[in-house]
Design a protein that fits this description.
This protein has about 350 residues and is α+β, with helices and mostly antiparallel strands. It is built from 12 helices and 10 strands. It has a 7-stranded mixed beta sheet. A 3-stranded antiparallel beta sheet has the order 5-4-7, with no helix packed on it.
Length: about 350
């Protein structure tokens, strides 16, 4: 993807004279003045010095890509908190309150509940369905466009494999019914509570659901072999997780494992892995990173694949997501992890 890697570009100034060597092959005719050679040597020496310094830095890191932020470019924690924009990420839930971005068609792999911060939201699906209100619900893998009267909005993300089949559809009917204003107010109250609860205990799925909906969504019971493969997909380190590797770990053939995975989760293994990979990007959204390196670290084969996948799921290019998340406070909650707590950013 263009613009991801830093590059050196050489431009001719408007007043530069282009010389055709076929017409003027002699160096004397170029107007080079021997008196200028010391300056030329000094500039060249400085360039060589910078290059050698970069090589030494590369040697110290062992040739590994660095995804740390550049100094002086990130906002501090207090400035992010003052912006009011936040995102809580748990393994199976996301609470986002921030910029919505330009309305583009998106197709995420999880249940989405949108709530307006002020006024209303416009929802349009690829099938032509349109609605306007302060709350909108979208099922997984439904292409849609969401626009807001206000520049910011609230978005809840519920992973479908974490909820018993049919349970979210029942909740969605209530969210879209006469109780929609009540739920919208409750979710806005949850947003205000999260602004005050930026550090503390982890938030489980049941606590998240009760905070937003007033009740816990019933969990889905999964085969232990599928649970193990989901955990492998979520590690994002080492070699890419494949269906063959998960099948071997489960003691099944690839075809039998793929059938079992879709039967248990309702999602194909490939689609599930693609969505989780794109979801993992959220952990880094407020950091100043080399996106080409980040794409490789997450598991994308190249920057083009990375850009297309992110745009398909979120309706925005990766660069636009990072640009709009500079003042976003990100908190990660992982129940069951020792001393996890609500942590800013990514440990």
């Amino acid at each position: 993807m263009a613009g991801l890697d830093p590059a050196i570009h050489v431009f001719l100034s408007r007043s530069a004279k282009v010389v055709d060597a076929r017409v003027k092959p002699g160096h004397d005719e170029l107007g080079l003045n021997p008196e200028h050679f010391p300056n030329f040597i000094a500039v060249t020496s400085a360039a060589i010095s910078v290059f050698c310094r970069l090589l030494r830095q590369r040697a110290r890191t062992g040739g590994k890509k660095q995804t740390c932020s550049r100094e002086g470019t990130e906002m501090n924690d207090s400035a992010r908190r003052e912006s009011g924009h936040l995102m809580l990420i748990t393994p199976e839930r996301v609470f986002y309150a921030g910029l919505l971005g330009r309305p583009r068609q998106r197709c995420p792999g999880a249940f989405h509940v949108y709530v307006s911060v002020e006024a209303g939201l416009w929802l349009t699906t690829a099938t032509g369905y349109e609605s306007y209100g302060e709350l909108a619900v979208v099922a997984p893998d439904v292409r849609h466009t969401i626009a807001s009267d206000h520049r910011s909005a609230i978005c809840l993300v519920i992973e479908p494999e974490s909820v018993r089949e049919g349970a979210f559809e029942q909740l969605a009917a209530r969210l879209a019914g006469a109780d929609a204003p009540f739920f919208a107010q409750r979710i806005r109250a949850a947003y205000r509570a999260l602004q005050q609860r930026q550090h503390g205990d982890d938030i489980s799925n049941a606590e998240f659901d009760a905070m937003c909906f007033g009740e816990a969504l019933p969990p889905r019971s999964l085969d232990p072999r599928v649970i193990k493969s989901i955990a492998q997909i979520g590690r994002f380190c080492g070699d890419p997780v494949t269906a063959a590797s998960c099948a071997a770990e489960a003691g099944l053939s690839s075809s039998r494992f793929l059938h079992l995975f879709k039967q248990e989760t309702g999602i194909s293994f490939r689609a599930f892995r693609a969505w989780k990979r794109a979801r993992h990007l959220l952990h880094f959204a407020n950091q100043d990173l080399n996106l080409a390196h980040l794409a490789q670290d997450i598991g994308y084969p190249d920057s083009t694949h990375f850009s297309h996948s992110i745009r398909r799921f979120y309706g925005l290019k990766p660069r636009a997501i990072f640009s709009g998340s500079r003042d976003l406070a990100i908190y990660r909650s992982e129940p069951g992890m020792p001393s996890a707590g609500l942590r800013q950013g990514r440990a």
